[in-house]
Amino acid sequence: MSLGELGVKVAKTAAYYRRRLREAGRVLLWPVVDRHRLARPLLVVGCSRAGTTLVYKTLSLAPNLASLNREGHPFWSALHPPEERGWSGHELTAADARAEDREEALRYYHRYLGPRRFVDKTNQNGFRIAYLEALFEEPTFVFVRRGPGDNIASLITGWGRPDEYGDWSAALPARVRINGGQYRRWCFFLFPGWRDYLDAPIEAVAAAQWAAYNEAVLAARQAIPATRFVEVAYEALLADPVASFRDLFGAVGADFSAAVARHCETVIARPYNAFSAPRVDKWRDAPEAARIAAVLPRVAATATALGYSLEGEG
Checking phi first, is residue 206 left (phi over 0); if not, alpha (psi -120 to 50) or beta? Predict the structure, then answer.
Protein backbone atom coordinates (compact mmCIF):
# COMPACT_ATOMS: atom_id res chain seq x y z
CA MET A 1 0.00 0.00 0.00
CA SER A 2 1.39 3.39 -1.01
CA LEU A 3 1.50 6.37 1.34
CA GLY A 4 -1.21 8.03 -0.71
CA GLU A 5 -3.51 5.01 -0.43
CA LEU A 6 -2.78 4.77 3.28
CA GLY A 7 -3.69 8.43 3.71
CA VAL A 8 -7.00 7.94 1.95
CA LYS A 9 -7.79 4.91 4.10
CA VAL A 10 -6.94 6.76 7.31
CA ALA A 11 -9.09 9.73 6.27
CA LYS A 12 -12.07 7.48 5.50
CA THR A 13 -11.69 5.67 8.81
CA ALA A 14 -11.49 8.94 10.73
CA ALA A 15 -14.56 10.29 8.93
CA TYR A 16 -16.47 7.12 9.75
CA TYR A 17 -15.75 7.36 13.47
CA ARG A 18 -16.50 11.09 13.55
CA ARG A 19 -19.88 10.33 12.00
CA ARG A 20 -20.56 7.57 14.50
CA LEU A 21 -19.63 9.87 17.39
CA ARG A 22 -22.01 12.55 16.12
CA GLU A 23 -24.79 9.98 15.84
CA ALA A 24 -24.13 8.74 19.37
CA GLY A 25 -24.22 12.30 20.67
CA ARG A 26 -27.55 12.94 18.96
CA VAL A 27 -28.99 9.81 20.53
CA LEU A 28 -27.97 11.06 23.97
CA LEU A 29 -29.43 14.52 23.31
CA TRP A 30 -32.73 13.22 21.93
CA PRO A 31 -34.75 13.61 25.18
CA VAL A 32 -34.19 17.39 25.13
CA VAL A 33 -34.42 18.03 21.37
CA ASP A 34 -37.13 20.45 20.21
CA ARG A 35 -39.36 18.24 18.06
CA HIS A 36 -41.05 21.24 16.46
CA ARG A 37 -37.83 22.27 14.71
CA LEU A 38 -37.60 18.85 13.06
CA ALA A 39 -41.18 18.36 11.99
CA ARG A 40 -41.28 20.36 8.73
CA PRO A 41 -39.54 18.11 6.21
CA LEU A 42 -39.39 18.33 2.44
CA LEU A 43 -40.89 15.14 0.97
CA VAL A 44 -40.30 14.23 -2.67
CA VAL A 45 -42.99 12.03 -4.23
CA GLY A 46 -43.70 10.90 -7.76
CA CYS A 47 -44.28 7.74 -9.73
CA SER A 48 -41.24 5.50 -9.98
CA ARG A 49 -39.13 6.36 -13.04
CA ALA A 50 -40.61 9.89 -13.19
CA GLY A 51 -37.41 11.74 -12.30
CA THR A 52 -37.73 11.78 -8.52
CA THR A 53 -34.10 10.78 -8.00
CA LEU A 54 -32.94 13.73 -10.11
CA VAL A 55 -35.02 16.11 -8.01
CA TYR A 56 -34.11 14.50 -4.68
CA LYS A 57 -30.37 14.39 -5.33
CA THR A 58 -30.34 18.00 -6.49
CA LEU A 59 -32.36 19.24 -3.52
CA SER A 60 -29.98 17.31 -1.29
CA LEU A 61 -27.21 19.70 -2.39
CA ALA A 62 -28.96 22.73 -0.86
CA PRO A 63 -26.73 24.10 1.94
CA ASN A 64 -29.69 24.55 4.29
CA LEU A 65 -31.11 21.03 3.85
CA ALA A 66 -30.00 17.69 5.25
CA SER A 67 -30.35 14.42 3.37
CA LEU A 68 -29.62 10.74 3.80
CA ASN A 69 -28.86 10.62 0.07
CA ARG A 70 -30.66 7.33 -0.18
CA GLU A 71 -34.21 6.06 -0.57
CA GLY A 72 -36.25 6.14 2.64
CA HIS A 73 -38.26 3.04 1.73
CA PRO A 74 -36.73 0.64 4.30
CA PHE A 75 -37.55 2.96 7.18
CA TRP A 76 -41.11 3.80 6.14
CA SER A 77 -42.01 0.22 5.26
CA ALA A 78 -40.75 -0.98 8.63
CA LEU A 79 -43.24 1.33 10.39
CA HIS A 80 -46.17 -0.20 8.52
CA PRO A 81 -45.12 -3.40 6.71
CA PRO A 82 -47.43 -4.15 3.77
CA GLU A 83 -47.97 -7.70 5.01
CA GLU A 84 -49.70 -6.31 8.11
CA ARG A 85 -52.36 -4.89 5.79
CA GLY A 86 -52.76 -8.10 3.86
CA TRP A 87 -50.62 -6.79 1.01
CA SER A 88 -53.54 -4.61 -0.08
CA GLY A 89 -51.18 -1.86 -1.15
CA HIS A 90 -48.89 0.88 0.15
CA GLU A 91 -51.62 3.34 1.03
CA LEU A 92 -51.75 4.85 4.52
CA THR A 93 -54.29 7.35 5.79
CA ALA A 94 -54.32 10.04 8.46
CA ALA A 95 -55.84 7.49 10.84
CA ASP A 96 -52.64 5.43 10.58
CA ALA A 97 -50.45 8.29 11.84
CA ARG A 98 -49.63 7.14 15.36
CA ALA A 99 -47.80 9.26 17.91
CA GLU A 100 -45.09 6.61 18.09
CA ASP A 101 -44.64 6.84 14.31
CA ARG A 102 -43.92 10.55 14.58
CA GLU A 103 -41.51 10.06 17.44
CA GLU A 104 -39.66 7.28 15.62
CA ALA A 105 -39.44 9.22 12.37
CA LEU A 106 -38.09 12.35 14.02
CA ARG A 107 -35.67 10.31 16.13
CA TYR A 108 -34.41 8.43 13.05
CA TYR A 109 -33.75 11.48 10.91
CA HIS A 110 -32.29 13.48 13.81
CA ARG A 111 -29.87 10.66 14.60
CA TYR A 112 -28.40 10.67 11.10
CA LEU A 113 -28.92 14.29 10.03
CA GLY A 114 -29.07 16.43 13.13
CA PRO A 115 -31.47 19.35 13.67
CA ARG A 116 -31.57 20.74 10.12
CA ARG A 117 -34.66 20.51 7.94
CA PHE A 118 -34.40 17.29 5.97
CA VAL A 119 -35.41 16.18 2.49
CA ASP A 120 -36.65 12.63 1.92
CA LYS A 121 -37.55 10.62 -1.15
CA THR A 122 -39.68 7.48 -1.03
CA ASN A 123 -41.73 6.79 -4.14
CA GLN A 124 -44.28 4.66 -2.29
CA ASN A 125 -45.09 7.67 -0.11
CA GLY A 126 -47.23 9.02 -2.92
CA PHE A 127 -49.90 6.71 -1.51
CA ARG A 128 -49.28 8.06 2.01
CA ILE A 129 -49.61 11.82 1.64
CA ALA A 130 -52.56 12.04 4.03
CA TYR A 131 -50.59 9.98 6.55
CA LEU A 132 -47.48 12.15 6.24
CA GLU A 133 -49.55 15.33 6.47
CA ALA A 134 -50.96 14.09 9.78
CA LEU A 135 -47.59 12.80 10.97
CA PHE A 136 -45.52 15.95 10.56
CA GLU A 137 -46.06 19.63 11.25
CA GLU A 138 -46.46 21.42 7.93
CA PRO A 139 -44.46 19.13 5.64
CA THR A 140 -43.84 20.37 2.10
CA PHE A 141 -44.48 17.93 -0.73
CA VAL A 142 -42.58 18.08 -4.02
CA PHE A 143 -44.52 16.18 -6.67
CA VAL A 144 -42.54 15.14 -9.74
CA ARG A 145 -44.67 14.27 -12.75
CA ARG A 146 -43.73 12.80 -16.12
CA GLY A 147 -45.78 12.21 -19.25
CA PRO A 148 -47.40 8.79 -19.58
CA GLY A 149 -45.57 7.51 -22.66
CA ASP A 150 -42.06 8.05 -21.34
CA ASN A 151 -42.91 7.08 -17.77
CA ILE A 152 -44.65 3.86 -18.78
CA ALA A 153 -41.75 2.92 -21.06
CA SER A 154 -39.27 3.44 -18.23
CA LEU A 155 -41.40 1.40 -15.85
CA ILE A 156 -41.40 -1.47 -18.34
CA THR A 157 -37.61 -1.34 -18.54
CA GLY A 158 -37.41 -1.29 -14.74
CA TRP A 159 -39.60 -4.37 -14.48
CA GLY A 160 -36.78 -6.18 -16.21
CA ARG A 161 -34.55 -5.45 -13.20
CA PRO A 162 -36.37 -7.22 -10.35
CA ASP A 163 -33.33 -7.36 -8.08
CA GLU A 164 -33.24 -3.58 -8.13
CA TYR A 165 -36.92 -2.67 -8.15
CA GLY A 166 -38.58 -5.74 -6.67
CA ASP A 167 -36.32 -6.56 -3.74
CA TRP A 168 -39.09 -5.56 -1.31
CA SER A 169 -41.67 -7.99 -2.74
CA ALA A 170 -39.92 -11.35 -2.29
CA ALA A 171 -42.54 -12.42 0.28
CA LEU A 172 -45.52 -11.25 -1.79
CA PRO A 173 -48.18 -13.98 -1.46
CA ALA A 174 -49.11 -14.05 -5.13
CA ARG A 175 -48.07 -15.90 -8.27
CA VAL A 176 -46.76 -13.21 -10.61
CA ARG A 177 -46.77 -14.26 -14.27
CA ILE A 178 -46.90 -10.95 -16.10
CA ASN A 179 -46.42 -10.97 -19.86
CA GLY A 180 -46.81 -14.72 -20.11
CA GLY A 181 -44.38 -15.35 -17.26
CA GLN A 182 -41.60 -13.03 -18.42
CA TYR A 183 -41.90 -11.01 -15.20
CA ARG A 184 -42.19 -13.06 -12.01
CA ARG A 185 -41.49 -10.57 -9.22
CA TRP A 186 -43.65 -7.54 -8.56
CA CYS A 187 -41.73 -4.29 -8.98
CA PHE A 188 -41.93 -0.70 -7.76
CA PHE A 189 -45.16 -0.50 -5.74
CA LEU A 190 -48.57 -2.03 -5.16
CA PHE A 191 -51.74 -0.14 -6.02
CA PRO A 192 -55.44 -0.79 -5.38
CA GLY A 193 -56.49 -3.69 -7.59
CA TRP A 194 -52.97 -4.88 -8.32
CA ARG A 195 -54.00 -8.53 -8.03
CA ASP A 196 -56.06 -8.12 -11.22
CA TYR A 197 -52.80 -7.67 -13.12
CA LEU A 198 -50.84 -10.73 -12.03
CA ASP A 199 -50.88 -12.23 -15.51
CA ALA A 200 -51.55 -9.10 -17.57
CA PRO A 201 -49.38 -7.73 -20.40
CA ILE A 202 -46.53 -5.63 -19.03
CA GLU A 203 -47.70 -2.45 -20.76
CA ALA A 204 -51.09 -2.79 -19.04
CA VAL A 205 -49.41 -3.19 -15.64
CA ALA A 206 -47.14 -0.18 -16.14
CA ALA A 207 -50.03 1.96 -17.39
CA ALA A 208 -52.14 0.98 -14.38
CA GLN A 209 -49.28 1.81 -12.03
CA TRP A 210 -48.75 5.23 -13.62
CA ALA A 211 -52.44 6.08 -13.49
CA ALA A 212 -53.06 4.79 -9.96
CA TYR A 213 -50.06 6.57 -8.51
CA ASN A 214 -50.77 9.95 -10.07
CA GLU A 215 -54.47 9.74 -9.28
CA ALA A 216 -53.62 9.07 -5.62
CA VAL A 217 -51.38 12.15 -5.50
CA LEU A 218 -53.94 14.35 -7.25
CA ALA A 219 -56.63 13.27 -4.80
CA ALA A 220 -54.43 13.85 -1.76
CA ARG A 221 -53.32 17.25 -3.06
CA GLN A 222 -56.79 18.66 -2.46
CA ALA A 223 -56.22 18.62 1.30
CA ILE A 224 -52.75 20.22 1.22
CA PRO A 225 -52.31 24.02 1.23
CA ALA A 226 -50.95 25.21 -2.11
CA THR A 227 -47.92 26.74 -0.41
CA ARG A 228 -46.86 23.28 0.77
CA PHE A 229 -47.49 21.34 -2.43
CA VAL A 230 -45.02 22.10 -5.20
CA GLU A 231 -45.27 20.44 -8.58
CA VAL A 232 -42.44 20.05 -11.08
CA ALA A 233 -42.59 18.48 -14.53
CA TYR A 234 -39.72 16.26 -15.58
CA GLU A 235 -40.00 17.71 -19.08
CA ALA A 236 -39.36 21.22 -17.72
CA LEU A 237 -36.24 19.99 -15.95
CA LEU A 238 -34.92 18.58 -19.22
CA ALA A 239 -35.70 21.78 -21.13
CA ASP A 240 -34.04 24.20 -18.69
CA PRO A 241 -32.63 22.55 -15.57
CA VAL A 242 -31.07 25.71 -14.13
CA ALA A 243 -34.20 27.84 -14.33
CA SER A 244 -36.50 25.00 -13.30
CA PHE A 245 -34.45 24.06 -10.26
CA ARG A 246 -34.00 27.70 -9.29
CA ASP A 247 -37.77 28.10 -9.27
CA LEU A 248 -38.22 24.85 -7.32
CA PHE A 249 -35.61 25.78 -4.71
CA GLY A 250 -37.27 29.16 -4.25
CA ALA A 251 -40.70 27.60 -3.84
CA VAL A 252 -39.58 25.23 -1.08
CA GLY A 253 -37.18 27.56 0.73
CA ALA A 254 -33.99 25.77 -0.31
CA ASP A 255 -30.77 27.74 -0.89
CA PHE A 256 -29.88 27.80 -4.60
CA SER A 257 -26.16 28.31 -4.11
CA ALA A 258 -23.57 28.90 -6.82
CA ALA A 259 -22.45 25.29 -6.41
CA VAL A 260 -26.01 24.05 -6.94
CA ALA A 261 -26.35 26.23 -10.05
CA ARG A 262 -23.16 24.73 -11.49
CA HIS A 263 -24.49 21.26 -10.75
CA CYS A 264 -27.73 22.04 -12.59
CA GLU A 265 -25.84 23.22 -15.66
CA THR A 266 -24.53 19.71 -16.33
CA VAL A 267 -26.90 17.42 -14.43
CA ILE A 268 -28.84 16.29 -17.52
CA ALA A 269 -25.59 15.24 -19.18
CA ARG A 270 -24.75 13.23 -16.04
CA PRO A 271 -28.16 11.82 -15.12
CA TYR A 272 -28.97 9.86 -11.98
CA ASN A 273 -30.16 6.31 -12.47
CA ALA A 274 -31.20 6.79 -16.12
CA PHE A 275 -31.50 3.81 -18.46
CA SER A 276 -30.36 5.96 -21.41
CA ALA A 277 -29.75 9.62 -22.25
CA PRO A 278 -32.73 11.68 -21.00
CA ARG A 279 -35.03 13.25 -23.60
CA VAL A 280 -38.72 13.80 -24.17
CA ASP A 281 -40.71 11.25 -26.22
CA LYS A 282 -38.02 8.62 -25.78
CA TRP A 283 -40.76 5.99 -25.55
CA ARG A 284 -41.37 6.17 -29.30
CA ASP A 285 -38.05 4.38 -29.89
CA ALA A 286 -38.76 1.66 -27.32
CA PRO A 287 -39.32 -1.94 -28.48
CA GLU A 288 -42.76 -1.76 -26.81
CA ALA A 289 -43.75 1.55 -28.51
CA ALA A 290 -46.77 0.14 -30.35
CA ARG A 291 -48.02 -1.62 -27.22
CA ILE A 292 -47.55 1.52 -25.13
CA ALA A 293 -49.48 3.56 -27.70
CA ALA A 294 -52.31 1.04 -27.44
CA VAL A 295 -52.72 1.54 -23.68
CA LEU A 296 -52.39 5.33 -23.62
CA PRO A 297 -56.14 5.87 -24.11
CA ARG A 298 -56.69 4.05 -20.80
CA VAL A 299 -54.80 6.78 -18.94
CA ALA A 300 -56.14 9.75 -20.93
CA ALA A 301 -58.17 11.23 -18.06
CA THR A 302 -55.22 11.09 -15.67
CA ALA A 303 -52.90 12.57 -18.28
CA THR A 304 -55.29 15.45 -18.86
CA ALA A 305 -55.57 16.11 -15.12
CA LEU A 306 -51.77 16.35 -14.99
CA GLY A 307 -51.62 18.74 -17.93
CA TYR A 308 -50.53 16.31 -20.63
CA SER A 309 -52.17 15.98 -24.03
CA LEU A 310 -52.26 12.54 -25.60
CA GLU A 311 -52.48 14.04 -29.07
CA GLY A 312 -48.71 14.08 -29.18
CA GLU A 313 -48.38 10.80 -27.33
CA GLY A 314 -50.59 8.39 -29.19
Answer: alpha
Secondary structure string (H, E, C) spanning the chain = CCHHHHHHHHHHHHHHHHHHHHHHHHHHHHHHCCHHHHCCCEEEECCCCCCHHHHHHHHCCCCCCEECCCCCHHHHHHHCCHHHHCCCCCCCCHHHCCHHHHHHHHHHHHHHHCCCCEEEECHHHHHCHHHHHHHCCCCEEEEEECCHHHHHHHHHHHHCCHHHHCHHHCCCCCCCCECCCCECCCCCCCCCCHHHHCCCCHHHHHHHHHHHHHHHHHHHHCCCCHHHEEEEEHHHHHHCHHHHHHHHHHHHCCCCCHHHHHHHHHCCCCCCCCCCCCCCCHHHHCCCHHHHHHHHHHHHHHHHHHCCCCCCCC
Q: For 26-306, CATH number?
A: 3.40.50.300
> Percent of the chain, pLDDT > 90?
78
**What's the CA gap between 50 and 255, in Å, rounded?**
24
* C-beta of residue 237 within 8 angstroms of C-beta of residue 51: yes
Chain mean pLDDT for the chain:
90
pTM for the structure as a whole: 0.89
Backbone angles phi, psi at 66, to 5 degrees: -110, 150
pLDDT given at position 35: 56
Phi-psi map region of 181: left, alpha, beta (phi>0 left; psi -120 to 50 alpha): left
d(CA 129, CA 43): 9
Q: What is the pLDDT of residue 110?
A: 86
